[in-house]
Amino acid sequence: QSALTQPRSVSGSPGQSVTISCTGTSSDVGGYNYVSWYQQHPGKAPKLMIYDVSKRPSGVPDRFSGSKSGNTASLTISGLQAEDEADYYCCSYAGSYHSPWVFGGGTKLTVL
Amino acid sequence: EVQLVESGGGLVQPGGSLRLSCAASGFTFSSYWMSWVRQAPGKGLEWVANIKQDGSEKYYVDSVKGRFTISRDNAKNSLYLQMNSLRAEDTAVYYCARDCDPRQCQTGPFDYWGQGTLVTVSS
Q1: For residue B108, which of A87, A70, A48 has the smallest C-alpha distance?
Q2: Is A99's CB within 8 Å of B111's CB?
Q3: Contact at 8 Å (CB) between A99 and A48?
Q4: Is pLDDT at B103 greater than 90 in this prediction?
Q5: pLDDT digits (tens, 9 = 90+) for B32-58
Q6: Nearest C-alpha of chain B: how many angstroms from A8?
Q7: What sign does the CA torsion over A25, A95, A75, B44 have?
Q8: Do A100 and B59 touch (CB under 8 A)?
Q9: pLDDT tens-digit map of B59-78
Q10: For residue B3, what pLDDT band results from cuts at 50, 70 and 90?
Q11: Which residues of chain B lie closer than 8 angstroms to A98, CB-CB?
Q12: A33 → chain B, closest CA residue
C-alpha cells in the first residue's frame, strides 16, 4: 500500500485561507468516504481534525473543513491563525482485507 | 478523560525484540478497535497494525508482517505490540491510538492518541 500524496509544504498569511491536497487511488481515497485529517505540532501527538471527509469532531473550529473529489481529498483552513502552523496528515481507509489504513506523507503549514 | 499511556520503548540491537504496552483508561476499552501508528525521526505517520475489539481480527502493514504481533487484554485495558527481528528502519516513535471500523463508528479513527514511546534499533 503506497502512502497518499500530499504537498511537502504550504504557507499563508494570517487571515488567509490555505488548502492542502491528498491524492490517492480508487482503492483508498476514491473508493471510500473515510478520509481523516490530523494536525501535529512539534513533539506532540497528532490530533484528529476532520473525519469521514468533512465531519469535525467536537471542539475543532469550523475554520477547518474537508472535501473530496474523485481520488483527491482536501483540507481547507480559513482565517489562518498563528497556532495553525503545524504538520498536517491525511489518512484514508483502504478496505478491510489488507492494510486498512494509509496515511499521507504530511504537509508542513507555515503561517507567514 | 480518555488516556492512552505507552511504555516499553528503548534501545535494541538489530535482530532483537521488544514488547510495547499501552494502558488505556477513561473509556470502555473492550468496545473499540485499537491501532499502533509509528513515526520515524523527522518523517511522517505510518499505520502499523490494528486489532478488533475481541482480538479476532488483526491487520498489519506489509513491512512488519511476520515480525510484529499485536494483541490486547481487555481485562487489563491494555494493548500490546510484540516486535521481533527488529531492523534499523523500525526506529520510530510508536503511538497507541483508539481506532474504529469506519463503517460503524461515529467518532472517526484515531480520535485519541498516547504520547508515544521511542524505539531505537541500532548496534
Answers
A1: A48
A2: no
A3: no
A4: no
A5: 999 999 999 999 999 999 999 999 999
A6: 11
A7: negative
A8: yes
A9: 999 999 999 999 999 999 99
A10: very high
A11: 59
A12: B102
